[in-house]
Amino acid sequence: MNANHQTTGLFKYLSPAKFEFFEKCLLSLTPPIYFNDPWDFLPKGQAVSEAQLLEAPEIVEAAIAQASVIAVPLDFARRRRDASLQALRKQITTDDFLEGASDNYQQKISKIVGAISLTELPLCRLMWAHYAESYSGFVVEFIAGEMDHYKGFFARTLGFGLPATKVKYPLSAQRVTLNENADNVDELCWSKHPVWEYEQEWRVVAHLHGSHSVGIKDKKGEDRFCVSFPPQSLHRVIFGMRMKPEIKRRLLAMLARPEFEHVQKEVTAINHGTGELVSKAF
Question: pLDDT digits over 187-197, tens only?
Answer without folding.
Answer: 888 999 999 99
